[in-house]
UniProtKB/TrEMBL annotation:
The UniProt record lists the keyword Transcription regulation: yes
Segments forming domain HTH araC/xylS-type: 215-308
The keyword Transcription belongs to this UniProt entry's keyword annotation: yes
Keywords, sorted A to Z: Transcription, Transcription regulation
Pfam families: DJ-1_PfpI, HTH_18
Database matches in InterPro entries: Class_I_gatase-like, DJ-1/PfpI, Homeodomain-like_sf, HTH_AraC, INH-QAR
Name of the protein in its database record: DJ-1/PfpI family protein
Transmembrane annotation, as ranges: none
PROSITE patterns (UniProt xref): HTH_ARAC_FAMILY_2
Amino acid sequence: MSHVVFVLVPGVHLLDLAGPAQVFSMAGDFGQPYRLSYVADQEEVCSAQGLPLAAHTQWPELNADDLVVVPGWRASTLRGGPELSRSVLERLRAHHTAGGAVASVCAGAEALGRAGLLDGRRCTTHHHLQDELAARHPRAIVVRDVLFTTDDRVVTSAGIASGIDLALHLLAVRHGPALAAQVARDMVVYARRNGHEPQASAMLRHRSHLDDAVHRAQDLIDARFAEPLPLAYVAASVGVSERTLTRMFHRATGGLTPLRYQQTLRVERAEHLIGHGTTVEAAAREVGFQDVRMLRRLRSRAPSEATG
């Protein structure tokens, strides 16, 4: 049994903590039990969502097989985050020096940075905090717009839910991808994502507008992007003409047509499948391309061309 220790700071985000904790807890249901502990500088920590959390003030004995995780916390800037005690930073450094792994979710990367563990290493954090992390820790190699990074037993992940991806990745590395897939399935996680996948999927990147009709059209395309969706059908579903929908869609999404949006979703899903070992031909069929050459053409385009 391995030990996973979560370091709790005031204002900790519940999902930053609960997502990875759930992953490691459920691993025991498939024969790989983990012991979970929660430590802090005080016996009770209030989460960002107002739920008080109990913690131990004494750290357990750890060895090189164990993992220390720093979940993120609520703060508009890293500078404005909670105080991190010297003892916590020393513990993080000591565990890594002894051969152990340390990990962070979202703003938790700041703790690793203050401990000196990001110097010369690849790392990431929430996309809103990446520039500040790079400025505060200039020796760190901040990788932008990825879900997680691993570098010399230092593992960092992006915002909130990406902590689940990080934990599933660590299970896959240690116990094989089958266990990670079993845990993901039981957690009803849509798919185990690779670290290099973007933090914001196409379903999120083009949703910052306020046009209800376009949102309804996107809802339909999101749910059925692998199916043939004639423009006339999509337009009728949201109660506008084809020409009106095209014009509204183009304006709301920054230049996309409904077809281009559908193709973007297909290519993004195909890239995910290929990254997990699916052949290009099988991925093309899975996402609805009748001709694999169309997928190859779209993949070969520059990002701005493939999605514009």
